[in-house]
Write a sequence for this structure.
């Protein structure tokens, strides 16, 4: 049985093509079941960057044709963007995908969950089960042993990571949002996902502030009353469209007296800026604007790319392990036949000797059983190991044929 | 026997000090090497102190070199509690070179040559030395805090690269270490004064350091002097201890 991968990804197809072959999880399940007909196995992995069909079947040419048909039926223009990989190459590709090495942002965290979901929805047997389990393991290992997924890859994530450098855990920290647009909302989500609390949303349009505040369980405030909240907030996120700064140094200076030395982290995502740059000069205040954050993100991405080299080595080693395991499958039927034949002979010989063994006690009979079984096992141990080694070196079929011929196992193919 | 244990401890501390410098370039490997150096060195030094205590007739660390030896043991032991955590690895850059240098100095001074059979002196010296060690650790943490704080203010693109402890965490640790050290130091000084130790420059310096550390804690609690101000006060307190040559002068 061979593994075949047919897919399309952001490397070769734009979003306008990818979106036409994207599969929801239910559709992915149905397609996998369809492709797995006739004793095959299949998994459909569909994310925003790729749709890939993994099929394991004895007839790999037919499996590839069917997988290709599934994708082309949905979007005929994909023909030139499709890639096809087999066995070891397919495994390496999947391991790289699971480790986030094939993603637009190296090491992005969502992909591992998507691979897991695709695996759960797939129609798997021994081969794809092993392939996907090992892919998930490789993805986790690459993240655990390298820094590929550590640094933030977006401005909201960088803002939250910087706040963690000031406060450590963000659980229970009060966030004051100035502005209630899309950027504020995204940044708020990044903080909330780390346990922070959106305490107040202040906006010129009070209704929009109320709407966003309700979404996060906070309170709404008009922009001219933010000084009250400054005394209690831990983080200020500003992204209004005001042409003038909405928070000046003197506002923060006044609030600092009541803060009793507690630090204040301020993020200015607006252009023109909402926060007076002089605020950063105040003791205990740390102000980052959009340029600072973008520089941090660029640096982070650079660091992820540097870590990617180490992650590549990890997934390559895992792919090699998978290759060895898959190759050993070629000799498994021959080994099984050989062992079955040996066991058959052992039992037959014991049956022949039954009249002589009749005088033995139960304990003695068990000892004879055990001794003969051990002899068979010891005799077959080395040939078994050598056959597996030969399989790993691509000579498995030759050895398997030789064993079948030497022991007369041809009929049991 | 003591000689045999001194060198492994010094080599391990030296190795840790060198490895910590490499933390900025290869964090994972350097941290592993450094932490193992600290652990092995501290273990060897613990054995050294045990041998010295076993061989001596009474309290063996009453002279300046012995007290320095004990001081390094306390300081490295306290660092091990925090420094084993990856978040505090950078602190080792400040702690371990100083610890290795002081330990070497204690070795040159001929550690544990004098001994005192006076239990009172032993407790007094032990508590004061533990206090010094704590102050040294608090000062290292405070220096580390100021460096991190300045770095955050300057907003370099690689600000997230090192993964140090947060400012709030570090500030809290400085305060906790100061409280424990001040308690030990206070009892140690009180015992010395009860025993009728004359008030010389060293004692005056000790009391001044006590006042600065105490003031830092009171101001923190009452007026909210945290962060930079608290760090500067901690460093000032330790500077008083260091510049007045208190460990050597007082205990010698």
């Amino acid at each position: 049985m061979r593994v075949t991968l047919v897919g399309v990804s952001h490397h070769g197809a734009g979003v306008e093509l990818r979106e036409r072959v994207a599969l929801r999880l239910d559709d992915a399940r149905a397609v996998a079941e369809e492709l797995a007909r006739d004793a095959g196995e299949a998994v459909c992995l569909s994310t925003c960057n790729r749709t890939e069909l993994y099929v394991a079947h004895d007839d790999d040419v037919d499996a590839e044709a069917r997988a290709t048909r599934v994708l082309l039926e949905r979007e005929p223009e994909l023909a030139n963007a499709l890639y096809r990989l087999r066995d070891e190459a397919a495994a390496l590709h999947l391991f790289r995908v699971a480790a986030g090495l094939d993603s637009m942002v190296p090491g992005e965290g969502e992909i591992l969950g998507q691979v897991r979901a695709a695996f759960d929805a797939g129609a798997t047997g021994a081969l794809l089960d092993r392939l996907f389990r090992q892919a998930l393991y490789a993805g986790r290992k690459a993240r655990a042993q390298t820094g590929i997924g550590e640094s933030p890859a977006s401005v909201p994530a960088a803002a939250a990571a910087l706040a963690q450098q000031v406060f450590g855990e963000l659980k229970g920290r009060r966030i004051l949002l100035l502005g209630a647009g899309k950027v504020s909302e995204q940044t708020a989500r990044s903080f909330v996902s780390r346990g922070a609390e959106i305490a107040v949303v202040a906006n010129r349009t009070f209704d929009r502030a109320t709407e966003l505040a309700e979404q996060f369980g906070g309170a709404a405030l008009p922009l001219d009353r933010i000084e009250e909240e400054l005394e209690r907030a831990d983080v200020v996120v500003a992204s209004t469209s005001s042409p003038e700064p909405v928070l000046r140094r003197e506002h923060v200076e006044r609030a600092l007296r009541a803060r009793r030395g507690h630090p204040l982290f301020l993020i200015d995502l607006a252009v023109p800026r909402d926060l007076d740059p002089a605020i950063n000069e105040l003791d205990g205040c740390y102000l980052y604007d959009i340029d600072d954050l973008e520089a941090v993100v660029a640096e982070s991405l650079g660091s992820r790319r540097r870590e990617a080299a180490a992650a590549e080595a990890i997934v390559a080693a895992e792919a090699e392990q998978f290759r060895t395991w898959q190759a050993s499958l070629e000799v498994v039927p021959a080994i099984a036949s050989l062992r079955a034949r040996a066991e058959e002979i052992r039992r037959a010989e014991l049956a022949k000797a039954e009249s002589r063994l009749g005088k033995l006690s139960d304990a003695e009979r068990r000892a004879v059983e055990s001794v003969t079984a051990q002899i068979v096992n010891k005799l077959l141990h080395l040939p078994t190991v050598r056959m597996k080694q030969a399989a790993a070196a691509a000579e498995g079929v030759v050895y398997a044929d030789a064993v079948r011929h030497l022991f007369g196992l041809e009929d049991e193919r | 026997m003591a000689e045999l244990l001194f060198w492994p401890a010094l080599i391990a501390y030296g190795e840790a000090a060198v490895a910590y410098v490499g933390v900025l370039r290869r964090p994972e490997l350097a941290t592993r090497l450094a932490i193992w150096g600290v652990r092995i060195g501290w273990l060897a030094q613990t054995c050294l102190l045990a041998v010295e205590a076993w061989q001596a007739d009474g309290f063996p660390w009453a002279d300046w070199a012995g007290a320095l030896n004990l001081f390094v043991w306390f300081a490295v032991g306290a660092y091990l509690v925090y420094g084993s955590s990856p978040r505090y690895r950078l602190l080792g850059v400040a702690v371990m070179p100083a610890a290795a240098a002081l330990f070497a100095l204690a070795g040159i001074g001929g550690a544990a040559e004098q001994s005192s059979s006076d239990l009172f002196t032993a407790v007094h010296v032990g508590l004061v030395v533990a206090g010094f060690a704590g102050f040294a650790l608090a000062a290292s943490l405070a220096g580390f805090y100021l460096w991190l704080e300045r770095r955050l203010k300057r907003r370099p693109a690689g600000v997230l690269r090192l993964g140090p402890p947060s400012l709030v965490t570090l500030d809290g640790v400085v305060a906790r270490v100061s409280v424990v050290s001040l308690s030990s130091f206070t009892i140690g000084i009180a015992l010395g004064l009860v025993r009728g130790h004359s008030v010389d420059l060293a004692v005056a310096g000790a009391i001044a350091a006590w006042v600065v550390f105490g003031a830092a804690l009171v101001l923190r609690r009452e007026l909210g002097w945290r962060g930079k101000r608290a760090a500067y006060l901690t460093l000032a307190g330790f500077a008083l201890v260091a510049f007045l040559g208190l460990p050597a002068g007082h205990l010698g």
In short: Chain A touches chain B at residues 150-152, 158, 161-162, 164-168, 259-263, 280, 283-284, 286, 288, 292, 295-296, 298-300, 303 (CB under 8 Å). The two ends of chain A are 15 Å apart (CA to CA).
